[in-house]
Write a structure and sequence with these properties.
The chain is an all-alpha fold. It is built from 6 helices and 2 strands, in the order αααββααα. The longest helix is centred in the first third of the chain and has 31 residues, at about 1-30.
């Protein structure tokens, strides 16, 4: 059992950065019409080298396309991952707020929780948000 728990946590950590980046790229494209590396540097408060390395991994994994000095675009798989990440984030944040957590704290906490919440727990959160707390 412990091995299974730790394996899932390691897998969640492995996808966390990709999820954060595709979500940020989608948000930036939605807000500005395109996403450049500098947008991600500013969003994550990291160096250009960090963004370039991460974008190269995302490109290798088929989540983004880009060329030197060109905007970053999401592939169909990248868009799908960004949408799923955004929905999961919104559910976790809404659930925390429904529990009485302040909006600011819920926004911060949901950023970490969203990557580690199971499908079962996420479904339970959605059920409670839709139908209320069980009595």
């Amino acid at each position: 059992m412990a091995e299974r728990i730790h394996k899932r946590t390691r897998n969640d950590h492995a996808t966390e950065v990709a999820e954060d980046y595709v979500e940020a790229i989608a948000e930036t494209i939605s807000a500005k019409g395109l996403c450049r590396s500098i947008d991600l540097v500013q969003h994550f408060a990291v160096t250009h080298a960090t963004v370039n390395n991460t974008v190269a991994r995302l490109q290798r994994d088929g989540l983004v396309t880009t060329e030197p000095y060109q905007p970053i675009e999401l592939t169909a798989a990248g868009k799908q991952l960004a949408t799923a990440s955004r929905k999961r984030h919104e559910t976790v944040q809404a659930f925390l707020e429904a529990m009485g957590v302040s909006s600011q704290t819920a926004a911060i906490d949901s950023e970490g929780i969203e990557h580690h919440v199971s499908k079962e727990t996420l479904q339970a959160m959605r059920r409670i948000l839709k139908h209320g707390w069980p009595r």
